[in-house]
Amino acid sequence: GLPAALPALPLELTVLYNSLLFTVGASDSAIKGEAEGIRQGLLRVLEACGACGQDLGTEELWEKVLREVSVEELQAPLHRLGALQAAWWLAASQLGSVAGLFQLLSPAEDSGRAHCSEGWNKLLSVIKAWRVPPEGASLPLVQSAKDLKEILCTAAAFLQGLQELKAGNFPTALSLLQEAAGGFCSKKILAQIYTCLGCCAQQMGKPQTALQHLKRALQVDFQCLPALSHVAAVYHELGETDAELQALTLLYEALGKNPPAAASSSPYFLMRTELLVHTPVLTSLLRHHHPSEVKYLLAQRCLQDGRVADAVEHYLDFLSLLQEGLQQQVPLDGSSALPRIPEVFLEAASALEQAGRHQDAITVCEEVISRTTDLIPRVLWVEERLEPPESSLPGAELVGGLLSQKKESLCCLAWRTAGYLHQGWAWAKLGESKEAITQFSRCVCLPVTEDLQPEVEVLQKIRFLSLVGRGTQFLELGKHREALLDFQHSLQISPGDPAAASYLVQALWKLNRKQEAAAQWQKFCQSSPGEDGQQQGQGRPLPLYLVSCLEQARFPHSEPLARSIQDYLGAAAQDTSS
Fold this sequence. Notes:
CATH superfamily of the domain at 143-258 and 270-289: Tetratricopeptide repeat domain
TPR repeats: 464-497
Radius of gyration: 34 Å
Pfam families: TPR_16
CATH topology of the domain at 143-258 and 270-289: Serine Threonine Protein Phosphatase 5, Tetratricopeptide repeat
InterPro entries: FANCG, TPR-like_helical_dom_sf, TPR_rpt
Distance between the termini: 124 Å
Helix content: 55-70%
Order of helices and strands: HHHHHHHHHHHHHHHHHHHHHHHHHHHH
Keywords: TPR repeat
Number of strands: 0
Number of helices: 28
Oligomer: single chain
CATH architecture of the domain at 143-258 and 270-289: Alpha Horseshoe
Structural class: mainly alpha
Protein name: FANCG protein
CATH class of the domain at 143-258 and 270-289: Mainly Alpha
């Protein structure tokens, strides 16, 4: 409450500097908000000089103080307080304000010289051009201004590197992050910087360079587990499945261990780089995966790579984690690697089928069917397009909610019918053709539309696969006419499909309609391979849980059937010539 006095102000500002640093160090959390103490200190300086600045913003207040206050004894305390203000602004990503402040703190000739030598980055150049004020022996500081300057340089380079990385300016981001890596920071932050360098190199199409940076991050701090997850992603991009699975396994094991209590990597620094850098892009790059997410990635990659036994083991481990309240442990903001839970069940069923555990696959699918049946309305209209209306239109929010509900119902329908499809193939493998036909029949009564949204496109694929599957079981039972109808209907859904066309030819052949079979076979052979490939590649990627069904629907007897038809055509040609 005492009035400001010039002789006491150097001590007062130094005490303010130290107290603010103690407050920051004691909280040990990211700096947020405004440093109100700094503003009050500046107002005290103006008051002692007979001026006022209550109505000024913080930037204008600093400009007024630094331009109008020329008392020599106040310059060093004000410079140190300015460095603290820069720390607060860096934490708020107010980089322009920081640059403007350091331009005021530095003599014009120093600032100009810095621009000439280091013009590629204005902010770093003006911070480096700032002359650190000498420390007085009578006024000890809890953290030197020289160390604070180094931390500000590192944080500024790191923050700008992250901004450029987010903007897609990868060469500039790489330069700034490399500058930060050579700066003044703890091992924890250095590992984070190397992780960001790895992500930047990966975005630039340099996977080997990315791996070098990521491995360096792990050498610096093995507790930087996000680096390990990025290593797995790079190996996935390179197609090195063994290395990817090894990285994921290490990540899963590391997540399962209780990490040692992290001792402060820089115990004598109250202001640290990690308190200044906390942006959404960094949070995204350094997101820690839950062990269940990594377990799912292991299962998924094993299934995609045909490592069926390993996939089954990982899927069953994952399903057991569901009993531990997985939904409460995994973020629901879309950042998780996990798909919807019914899809995981269906992928597990696919893995069990491929491993020959057909009865277990049937049981897993029954769980999906029972859980989704009550979520599907009795009547579900399927339009050709499900597009939300413009938000400005009346009732748009209500319509958008209804569309979202309809999409969810379509997803549930797709999961349930996929469950029946898997059960059909499982019963077929067990030799139970009648039971298989029953399950396949539950999938075929689906609508046919064009210009499909993703959910309906999946349903159409399921319908196609179920018709082929049911047709194969009719063939097994000798019901060739019923089989022929199913194959004809499947070709209406997917014209030119090689498997359906081959099965159609086989059904005609078994019905002793050999001339028709030969004509269809010739028509199929005359269609160019490019068209067939294009037909197969059309549309969106098939969900992983349907890939095994597509494999099972392939026609297995191409060569014997082709020889029989060629023999028939050869004999027919001889009869004609004779």
